[in-house]
Amino acid sequence: MKLSVGATAPDLSITTITHQGMALSQLWQAQPIVLAFLRHFG
Q1: CA distance 40 to 29
Q2: φ and ψ of 17, to 5 deg
Q3: What is the mean pLDDT of each run of 10 residues along the chain (42 residues)?
């Protein structure tokens, strides 16, 4: 799926740094969020 700049992100299931599953929409309800995607090599 290709998104345009400024488009609404789909509601994804993510894993927090404490290894808990959470829907992206749960984080968005509390406050604006920033998603950062990092590539891992190795």
Answers
A1: 29
A2: -70, -15
A3: 81 86 84 82 78
SS (H, E, C) the chain: CCCCCCCCCCCCEEECCCCCEEEHHHHHHHCCCCCCCCCCCC
What pLDDT is recorded for position 37? 79
| CA pair distance 6, 8, nearest whole angstrom | 7
Q: Which residues of 17-29 are buried (b: 16+ CB within 10 A; e: fewer)?
A: eeeeeeeeeeeee
The Cα 8–Cα 25 span in angstroms is 11
Question: What token pair was written down for 16?
Answer: 């927090």
